[in-house]
Amino acid sequence: MSAPRLLIANRGEIAVRVIRACRDLGISPVAVYSEADRAALHVRLADWAVPIGPAPARESYLVVEKLLDAAKKTGATMLHPGYGFLSENAAFARRVVEAGLTWVGPSPDSIAAMGSKTESRRRVLQAGVPIVPGMTTPARSAEEIAEFGRENGFPLLLKAAAGGGGKGMRVVRSAEEVPEAFARARSEARSYFADDAVYAELFVEHPRHVEVQVLGDATGRIIAVGERECSLQRRHQKVLEECPSAAVSPELRARMEAVAVAAAKSVDYVSAGTVEFLLAKDGRFFFLEMNTRIQVEHPVTEMVYGVDLVTEMIRIARGEPMSIREKPVPRGHAIQCRIYAEDPAHGFAPSPGRILRLRRPQGPGIRVDSGVEGGDDVPLDYDPMIAKFVAWGQDRDEALRRMRRALSESRVDGIETSIPFFLSLLEDPDVVANRISTQFLDGWSYVPKRPPEDVAAASIVAAALESMDGAKKRRPPAAPGCGSGPGAWRTARTSFGLRE
Amino acid sequence: MKFRTRFSDDKVGRALDVTAGAPSFEATLEGVPLSGDALAVRDGVWSLVGPDGRQIEVSVAFQNDGSVRAYAAGCLFGFELLDELTARALAATGGRSTRRIAHVAAAMPGRVLRVLVAPGERVTQGQPLVLLEAMKMENEVKSPRDGVIASVEAVAGKAVSAGDVLVRFEAGGE
């Protein structure tokens, strides 16, 4: 009997992450790819791969019919949506189920309930979960938002109703700013989620973003797997995450976990999910939203709690109980840095292009989840995150030291990345001492560090030598017989093209 | 071979004289002798080992404007590196100035969301000119100089390629 097949309706590092979970479970992974991704790593790691159209996501990764056709063509019986794209689209989940496939995620009804910011508020309020004051229906006009602001006070936060991951969010500090911000939030919401519904809520100043991982299975059991600290955000996009949060005591953790489980129960949650909270300075916390999918930052939880959330999702989707028997206990501390293809020295402008060289960090306590390798192109068409570096340590200090080591060790040539930004950030005394909030990075600017004189001199000499023709001392070419000429591969390939 | 080099936050440049190339390079930087073993690991990647054993791995990339971007020891930094003849020619004509910037071009492919200025408009350095969407983010293209807009080539809703001119400045005055 051939291995069951699971289609990953995504790309990049999360597609690679799900492929790894498939391998660990003896499942055969099926990739899909746009024209920009033919050579992408997630395609090359898969057993099966199906083209789904042009580079723009709206014509490929967001087209339901193409994804369902790809599953049919390859005989996939399961579908994992990853994060972003259609992962929180209840209509898509429904279509997947109706096509007879196993949807690796919560039920379409749970997605719909939590995906609607208004319905989710209604549900969790009934379950006794505290929330921040906000509009109960999407705004029909800028005036409606201004009116809400006059009643509840400014600043307000505009959010995409279908959103997540910070896309389409805007802070509005006065009624005068509403029309412009409303238009921009709608425009971003439309281009990213194909849905321009936007609503407003009160903006709690200097809060922390702390979220609780939950896992529910078909037996009705729902457990919490600790919290993550995600306060370091730039343009409302998380850039660095930690587990546990250094601001959360065991007593507070127990309360947040209980509330998160209650929120999940309010929609009969099955699968992995995340309940996001704003943690105020006084220790009060408010429900923000529930992400009904795997999170970008799930690896920090996996490192500290010793669980594999993605394989659990697949097990649960197949109707099996979760393999976690007892409530997992945290061990040590983990930090994740999201490495983006962007130029920190030029306002974090996107830096797409070909990665000429990629040296990944390795060694004790380091995990790298990446969708690219050296020689790969970073296309302009998608999110510019190229890798996640995760460092684990016995405590936060060791995790920080290991993360600094990982960042210094790695090298990316050909494109700019946020690695120098993180090296500076992790030297900031407030970050080291954990005095942070979600607004911390708004008031923090990356200043390129002047190199020590010996490093500067070496760089100047290297550049001069590089510019001088014939001045190079090259490495000798590889010894003859290495990696060239006809060999075993050539004879073996005659079998390629045969299908079972 | 003689060069002039200058870090962006330095007022004065320094003279570099390379008297022997790789593998055993010899040079002086503003009179300070430098020597060691230089290995080009691949294009743009060098490993330098000094006589005292100090090893530094350097990545260098030459930019369109003639400057160099380097990454070494966790530091990302830029500097000018000009051969002496070019450096002298530039010094004679008054060097580079923002006043000479004639236009603003798209740094990357994307789509023009909005045009924020009109021909004839006086703008200041740092003022947003055009709103571009690239990699799912909205990016403000800011003015690199004070000046007056001569023409606007960017059209809202249209795609642009890297290097496409978005806005032109009137010649001269700030």
- Give the uncertain stretches of chain B in residue-range form: none
Q: What does the average pLDDT of chain A come to? A: 91
Measure the end-to-end span of chain B: 38 Å
CATH topology heading of the largest domain in chain A: D-amino Acid Aminotransferase, Chain A, domain 1
Major sheet attributes of chain B? 8 strands, antiparallel, barrel
Per DSSP, the total helix count of chain B is 1
Helix tally of chain A equals 16
Strand order of the largest sheet of chain A: 13-12-9-10-11-14-21-19
Largest inter-chain contact set: A-B, 54 and 60 residues
- Total strands of chain B: the figure is 16
CATH architecture of the largest domain in chain A: 2-Layer Sandwich
C-alpha-based Rg of chain A, rounded: 24 Å
Calculate Rg of chain B over CA atoms. 21 Å
Following the backbone from N to C, one meets helices and strands of chain B in this order, namely EEEEEEEEHEEEEEEEE
Terminal Cα separation of chain A, in Å?
11 Å
Structural class of chain A: alpha+beta
How much strand content do the residues of chain B show?
Answer: over 45%
How does this structure look, described?
The complex is a heterodimer of chains A (500) and B (174). Chain A is built from 16 helices and 22 strands. Chain A is of the alpha+beta class and 500 residues long. Chain A has three domains: 5-104, Rossmann fold, CATH 3.40.50.20; 133-202, ATP-grasp fold, A domain (Dna Ligase, domain 1, 2-Layer Sandwich); 211-443, D-amino Acid Aminotransferase, Chain A, domain 1. The longest helix of chain A has 16 residues, at 178-193. Chain A is globular, with a radius of gyration of 24 Å. Residues 484-500 of chain A have low confidence and may be disordered. Chain B is 5% helix and 55% strand. Chain B has one helix and 16 strands. In chain B, strands 1-2-3-4-5-6-7-8 form an eight-stranded antiparallel barrel. At the A-B interface, helix 8, strand 16 and helix 15 of A face strand 1, strand 3, strand 4, strand 5 and strand 6 of B.
